[in-house]
Amino acid sequence: MDVGIIRDDEIDLLLNDIVETYGYDFIEYSRASLKRRINRLFTIDKFPSFAELRYRIKTDKEYLKRFVEEITVNVTEMFRDPHFYQELRNKILPALGTYPFIRIWHAGCSTGEEVYSMAILLKEANLLHKSLLYATDINPRVLEFARKALFPLSQMKQYSENYIRSGGKNDFSSYYSANYSLAKFNDELKAKIIFSTHNLVSDRSFNEFQLIVCRNVLIYFDRELQAKVFRLFDDSLEHLGYLALGAKETLRFSSIAPKYKQLGREKIWRKIG
Amino acid sequence: MTAVAATQVIVIGGSAGSLDVILKVLPDIRLNKHTAIIIVLHRKSSDDSPLVELLSYKTTLPVKEAEEKDLICGQCIYVAPSDYHLLIERDHTFSVDFSEKVNYSRPSIDITFQAAAEIYGENTIAILLSGANSDGTSGLQEVQRYQGKTVIQDPRTAEVSYMPQYALNNLTPDEILADDQIADYINRQQQA
Ligand SMILES: C[S@@+](CC[C@H](N)C(=O)[O-])C[C@H]1O[C@@H](n2cnc3c(N)ncnc32)[C@H](O)[C@@H]1O
Fold first, then answer.
1. Is A182 in contact with A152 (CB distance < 8 Å)?
2. Is the CB of A216 under 6 A from ligand 1?
3. Which positions in chain A touch B68 (Cβ < 8 Å)?
4. pTM of the model
5. B 48-77 residues with CB below 8 A of A?
6. What residues are paired with B95 via a beta bridge?
7. Does A86 lie in the same domain as A64?
8. Distance B150 CA to ligand 1 centre (A)
9. Tens-of-pLDDT digits for all 192 residues of chain B?
10. Is some CB atom of chain B closer than 8 A to the CB atom of A164?
């Protein structure tokens, strides 16, 4: 692993090129992770010099796609942090159930594992029929995967354990059919999900939700960008709506914090102000 | 006394068999106000508070889980959260990263060793303990490249010798230390 080849000032150049040429703005992303991933890509794609990487990105739109895919982290799981899903199941969904219609936004949904997990919870709470889930990400390619509802069969043992630990009582395998090395999740789950690209850096609020789930995305943003995204979420959340973040993320230091109340130990806040 | 940003970091990486070593050395460790310790431990449980608590019993120094955007302060012991890689920004704050496992591990010792070396350069000390994994070796090499100091637990004193032995097969560290020499080494290495 020989990284540290591209210098910080070169990364600045690259990010400026990208925002000028394509409008994707990574300037306010946490540098350490970005640098690591750019260096990784530089090594994998065997660029002889920084200048060649820079030229390629500026002139090759297809390569830019690959660049975006590779520098954003897409790792995800179904029912990751079972306690979090247990809290949704026991506390949040019953509250949402009192609404005639439920709108949920998964921002930074990656390949969809999280939003399908949510659909399963809604189904078990008998709320899926009156719910609509918006699953968005900056990266069109992960959304293509998400739409297919196909996940590696090899993961199902782990996911099934997570599901049970989240309080799931059904046979997890009833939610998919095995097809060679893949598990295809039931169409019924997907029917209530709308997949769409949305860039948290530059796109606006597009609806009002009762629940926004944005997990393991804000860790990649610096404080200013986090603040901006929190304002976007605040604009997109109904009064008494919920905001759910990743295990290592917090609303605590943001300007919207006074309007929100954290519920229990999990990273879920309710908009009370 | 107010906390100041650390100018020296001691990063301790361990896997199977390393928790006991850490519990054993912690009571004897002293830190001056410029030095921070960062502990990266492979572990199963995803709940971090028990580990932080466990370590707290063994030292009067503050022990904290490393949180994203926290300034790395002297006289403090930080523990990498489970299931995230721990990185360091140029402004000496932490960031966490949920990217692919490295060496089957998250947190990866390699990643934090390297992150520390990039930011703290020669003021980095990396200590690799017991384990059954090859994590840590390339991170130690990076620390050497940045003129930091490297220490490997003597495999003969390690509960699981694979990890320190693997590192020894690939590099020559500044020190090979028995578990009971580590605290003393840490106390001697700090800038006055
Ligand atoms: C680590 S994944 C998190 C997936 C899932 N929420 C989870 O916690 O398992 C981070 C996702 O954030 C997306 N992302 C990064 N920057 C974004 C942005 N500016 N707008 C929207 N999504 C973004 C990435 O493409 C990636 O799919």
1. yes
2. yes
3. 30, 219, 248-249
4. 0.95
5. 67-69
6. B87
7. no
8. 36
9. 568 999 999 999 999 999 999 999 999 999 999 999 999 999 876 667 789 999 999 999 999 999 999 999 999 999 999 999 999 999 999 999 999 999 999 999 999 999 999 999 999 999 999 999 999 999 999 999 999 999 999 999 999 999 999 999 999 999 999 999 999 999 999 976
10. no
B20 is catalytic: no
CA distance A2 to chain B (A): 8
Amino acid at A127: L
Q: Which of A43, A71, A99 is the last residue of a domain?
A: A71
* Separation CA B46–CA B40 (nearest Å): 14
CATH numbers and ranges of domains, chain B? 8-189 (3.40.50.180)
Question: Tell me, what DSSP letter sits at residue A92?
Answer: I
Contacts of B51 (CB under 8 A, 6+ apart): B41, B43, B45, B79, B82
Query: For residue A47, which amino acid is it?
Result: F
Q: Which residues contact B55 (CB under 8 A, 6 or more apart)?
A: B22, B23, B26, B39, B63, B77, B79
As a whole number of angstroms, the distance between CA A227 and CA A251 comes to: 9
The ipTM, to two decimals, is 0.94
Ligand 1 site, residue A87, Cβ cutoff 6 A: no
Q: Which two tokens stand for residue A255?
A: 């300007």
Q: Do A93 and A217 have their domain in common?
A: yes
Min Cα separation B180/chain A (Å) = 32
Q: Which domain holds residue A156?
A: 82-271
Interchain CB distance below 8 Å, B97 and A249:
no
The residue type of A170 is: N
Alpha helices, H only, A45-131: 50-59, 61-71, 82-87, 93-96, 113-124
